[in-house]
Specification:
Rfa1, seven-stranded mixed sheet, Replication protein A subunit, eight-stranded mixed sheet, single chain, OB fold (Dihydrolipoamide Acetyltransferase, E2P), 4 domains, alpha+beta, 10 helices, 649 residues, DNA-binding
Length: 649
């Protein structure tokens, strides 16, 4: 696989030569490039406003090496700061030594057009850091912050700590050294906890003192934080190539921000029962690394990995450290979010379903679930499903009177529209004392409770500028399928098209009232294939339709409320009754009429593109997740343009 030809070859090697020949003065100067240098970003991590740590590769072949840079993104750069797969062009740079490598600070940069994410997927795992840009500690000493000590005894002369969480060692490793006689505390023993249990005492900060969570980066050398444990997950066991393992995580916050901490292996046994939600702890000795946003919804760019050697001390309570920090997403924006995104949400309980018990397919154990319909001041609503122990946290009497509930760390899902699901680490707060909760409570008391709630409503209008033709959509889908960038949940694309054909032979299926899965007949009775419910099914649409525009066509499926929208609000139960009885409805239309009416209607479609395997063959599939009639979209576009024109006048 070849690299883009615009990349600058041998940039790393030439920079290495300049560092060795420039001496100490090289690190004090801002260097101008003879011509624009172009590198490809393969990984990014935001550490502050307009500051990104990026891993890049130059144009050297064969492709073996990468390096870390600090990219200063100017405010004039368009887009959402998505740098992975982009070519970064810069004219100025500065080099500063860190603990292990020389950090290249890029200024006067530009993001060039083009998307090469398919290259990063294949190249990233096999690359190593360019060896010539590694810092040799004996040649260039990097000043480090003073470590946090648990005693008032000074360190012995000549000792240093080159590992953020490792033991103190001699800086000269060439052989044993004689201890200076003038150092009175050299032989003082290091405090050791021989019990093997966590130390329970009040921490007063040590010599270094705590720093704000918001100030932590992966390059912070030695640190100690004082933070409150907001949530603590259950212990999760797993198996990998190294055998069995276990982990649990905690969310920590102080007055400046929040961060995720994860414990592995023996640290789980040592710390799980010591750490309690709501308590304040002093923590040091963990490893800072870029946050994995697939599993971490917190705003911090880093997360902390902690082992049994970490120092965690129970601290005194501090009212300046908040009990919880949330970044709430308005409900009307959830429709446009990707499936699997972890968010915080707050809303008033407009409706509440009864507790239901399902059988876990893998373990055979019973699992409780409960669905709540949340509304907020945007007027939109969404169903959220509580699972397991989260169901027991909210009693029936607490859900009376439409309480306001805040959820921290829920997952966006999709089944007949967007939904939310609680996770093991989700924090549920009943009637929280927050400004957002107060505003929602006041809105519900004045106007919200009078609104007509449509649970099948699709609240968010599409962005007109994101609409593509059928030809462009299929090209984008085929490219993502070819380079295997669809992921587990696929991608969502938007198109404007007309319904050309709807298959009439199989347009619905019998769905379970409890879990919406297909029901089958066994010995004359309906049985759900998932939860084994024997209630009467409710037929729901599973349409197979062909949509087309002047550039092409494609076959897609549409189910549930989306299918009902395409069928002009005629329910699947009514359509099935017309088909079975050969009858007409109240409008005087028969089964054939309602399908004819649905054809040749124009919509804005949101199409989820994904792949599935059938008979050992991967196939590309299209599923319509949203359908909005063109009239509604034109009205929304006109209102938006009129508002923009009014702001210019």
């Amino acid at each position: 696989m070849s690299l883009p030809r615009t990349l600058t070859p041998d940039f790393f090697s030439k920079l290495t030569d300049s560092i060795h020949s420039g001496g100490e003065s090289f690190f004090q100067e801002l260097h101008e490039c003879n011509g624009a240098v172009k590198v490809l970003c393969i990984q990014q991590s935001c550490i502050a406003e307009s500051k990104y740590l990026v891993e890049v590769l130059d144009g050297s072949v064969p492709v073996k090496y990468k390096h870390t840079c600090l990219a200063l993104i100017p405010a004039t750069v368009d887009g959402d700061k998505q740098l992975v797969g982009k070519i970064i062009s810069f004219n100025q740079y500065k080099v500063t030594p860190t603990k292990s490598r020389y950090l290249i600070i890029l200024t006067k940069i530009a993001i060039l057009p083009g998307d090469f994410r398919h290259l990063t997927t294949h190249l990233g795992p096999g690359l190593v850091y360019y060896p010539g840009l590694s810092v040799k500690q004996q040649e260039h000493a990097v000043p480090q912050a003073a470590p946090v000590q648990r005693t008032n005894q000074p360190l012995a002369s000549g000792q240093t700590n080159d590992n953020l969480s490792g033991p103190i060692r001699n800086s000269d490793d060439h052989g044993p050294q004689r201890k200076p006689q003038s150092a009175p505390y050299t032989d003082a023993p290091k405090p050791v906890n021989t019990t093997g249990k966590p130390v329970v005492k009040t921490a007063d900060g040590g010599t270094g003192g705590p720093i704000n969570i918001a100030d932590l980066t992966i390059y912070t050398p030695k640190w100690m934080i004082r933070a409150r444990v907001v949530t603590k997950s259950q212990i999760r066991k797993f198996n990998n190539q190294w055998g069995e393992g276990q982990l649990f995580s905690i969310d920590l916050c102080d007055s400046s921000g929040d961060i995720r901490g994860t414990f592995f292996g023996e640290a789980v046994t040592k710390w799980y029962h010591f750490i309690e939600e709501g308590q304040v702890y002093s923590i040091t000795g963990g490893q800072l690394k870029p946050a994995n946003k697939k599993f971490n919804s917190l705003s911090h760019a880093c997360e902390i990995s902690l082992d049994e050697n970490a120092q965690i001390l129970l601290d005194r309570n501090d009212d300046s450290i908040p009990a919880i920090r949330c970044s709430f997403t308005p409900i009307n924006q959830i429709e446009n979010m990707a499936v699997g995104t972890i968010i915080d949400v707050v809303g008033v309980v407009a409706r509440c379903n009864e507790v239901k018990s399902l059988q876990h397919k893998a373990t055979g154990t019973n699992l409780e679930k409960r669905e709540l319909l949340l509304c907020d001041t945007t007027g939109a609503n969404i169903w959220i499903t509580l699972w397991g122990k989260k169901v027991q946290q909210l009693q029936n009497n607490e859900l009376e009177g439409h309480p306001v509930i805040a959820f921290k760390g829920v997952k966006v899902g999709e089944w007949q529209g967007k939904r939310l699901d609680t996770q093991a680490s989700t924090k549920v707060t009943f009637n929280p004392v927050l400004p957002e909760a107060g505003a929602i409570k006041q809105w519900w008391a004045t106007t919200g409770s009078q609104m007509k709630i449509d649970t099948g409503k699709q609240s968010a209008e599409p962005n007109i500028e994101d609409i593509m033709s059928i030809k462009q959509l299929t090209q984008a889908a085929n490219q993502a399928f070819q380079f295997r960038t669809l992921g587990d949940n696929g991608i969502v694309l938007t198109t404007r098209a007309m319904v050309e054909v709807i298959k009439e032979n199989t347009f619905s299926w019998p769905a379970c009232m409890d879990c919406q899965r297909k029901m089958i007949k066994e010995t004359g009775h309906w049985v759900c294939t998932r939860c084994r419910s024997t209630n009467k099914p409710r037929h729901t649409y599973i349409l197979s339709l062909k949509i087309a525009d002047d550039t092409g066509s494609l076959w897609a499926t549409a189910s549930g409320y989306v299918g009902e929208e395409i069928m002009h609000k005629v329910s699947a139960e009514d359509a099935l009754a017309l088909s079975d009885n050969n009858d007409v409805n109240a409008a005087g239309k028969n089964f054939v009429n309602i399908f004819e009416e649905a054809r040749l209607s124009e919509y804005i479609f949101k199409v989820r593109v994904f792949s599935e395997t059938y008979m050992d063959e991967r196939r590309l599939k299209y599923r319509i997740s949203k359908a909005i009639r063109m009239g509604r979209c034109v009205d929304a576009a006109v209102k938006c343009r009129l508002k923009e024109i009014g702001q210019l006048l």
